[in-house]
Amino acid sequence: MGLNFPTAFWKGSNPSDDGEVSIDWDLKLYYSKQVLDENGQSVDPYLGAGNVNAATQNSNGLFPDIEGAHPYVVGTQNYFFEYAYTSTILAPDSNSFFGWLLTGYNQNDLQGFHRANPFIVEDDGRELNLFFEADQDTLEELNRDTNYSTETNTRAYEDTFNRFIQSGYAEGSFTLNSTSNLSITVSGLGEKYSSDFEKMHLAVNDIHICKGQAPGGDEDNPWDMNQVKLFNSAGVQTPTQYANRDQPNAKVDQDNRRAYTTTQGQATFTTPADPLQNMEAGVQHTIKIYFNTNDGQYNSGAFYGFKFNFS
After folding, report:
1. Residues whose CB is less than 8 angstroms from the CB of residue 82 and which lie 6 or more positions away in sequence, other chains included
2. What are phi and psi of 59, to 5 degrees?
3. Rounded to an integer, what distance in angstroms lies between the CA atom of residue 34 and that of residue 71?
4. Nearest by Cα to 7 from 64, 65, 71
5. Which residues, other chains included, contact 26 with Cβ-Cβ below 8 Å and sequence gap of 6+?
6. Phi first, then psi: what are they for 9, rounded to 5°?
7. What's 251's DSSP letter?
8. Dihedral angle, C-alpha 56, 117, 46, 63, nearest 10 °
9. Closest-CA residue to 63 (of 163, 164, 171)
10. pTM, whole model, 2 decimals?
């Protein structure tokens, strides 16, 4: 009899009582579904990829909620690592697999290695971050593929670090007391190997605002992080002059990754005027953000951060 892990879900900020705008977030992580036969063997582990493909190719550029994303079913065996699908499979592939390890489950305690909640909500919801989990391939590149100890046991790195595609979705809602303008400041880090990864898309009231992707451009150091490339609603890279991260020769500290971004590398979006300017009071507005590493490699240190400013 397997143990069901529901799709990871968190409720975000509480309403503000200081007169400031408060954004309430519904935060979701996506998992592929594994179907087990009577012997506990996997018969269909590859559900969900088609929905991601359809979302990626959506003509209006929006990433809708991934329908059909399901939790893992964990049998008597250590499922996560017994069926460790190769990390080079891309999200649109029919054989892709989505998953987050978080702090593990009853067979594998991962406290201290991954966050219990990769989302960070601050300032009454006006600041949001998503930290991707550390991956196996980065450890191999850095020759750190050794055993990792906890208070209770020692295990191999394959049982500790993520090799799945990490995908998440955040939907924020807010109501204004008076007509206001919204500006959105975005920053983040992504892998140097290729710009095909660490994807992000943000929409307000279902209107495309911006996208992000890994910087790429350095196949010799694929595990290393640099600031993400950001694009406005017209597809123009913003800022137009790319800026390298702070401390470029240091390996990114997983617990302090926001410290490596710079003001020159972040972007503030104030257009399109509809919907970001003269936003109507007394009605509910929505923010939708989709995240996808697009594969299971070189995610250690990657993240996206957002600040929502009202005036």
Report:
1. none
2. -65, -30
3. 8
4. 71
5. 9, 11, 12, 170, 171, 172
6. -150, 135
7. P
8. -10
9. 171
10. 0.82
Residue position matching structure tokens 């959506």: 58
181 contacts 310 by C-beta, under 8 angstroms: yes
Count of helix runs (H) and strand runs (E) in the chain = 4, 21
Contact 34, 42 (CB under 8 A): yes
* 199-204/167-175 β-pairing: unpaired
Run of H or E including 141 = helix 136-141
> Which tokens hold the place of 201?
């898309």
CA distance 70 to 278: 39
Write out the two tokens for 294. Answer: 């697009």
Question: What sign has the CA pseudo-torsion 277, 280, 282, 284?
Answer: negative
Residue identified by tokens 């206001």 is 180
Calculate the alpha carbon distances from 96 to 47, 77, 82, 213, 295 in Å. 8, 21, 16, 19, 8
Q: How do the pLDDT tens digits run along the chain, 311 residues long?
A: 222 223 333 344 333 344 689 999 988 877 665 444 566 554 444 333 333 333 333 322 222 333 333 333 333 333 344 444 556 777 777 666 777 888 776 556 788 888 988 999 999 999 999 999 999 899 989 988 777 766 666 667 777 888 888 888 899 999 999 999 999 999 999 999 999 999 999 999 999 999 999 999 999 999 999 999 999 999 999 999 999 999 998 999 989 999 999 999 999 999 999 999 999 999 999 999 989 898 899 999 999 999 999 99
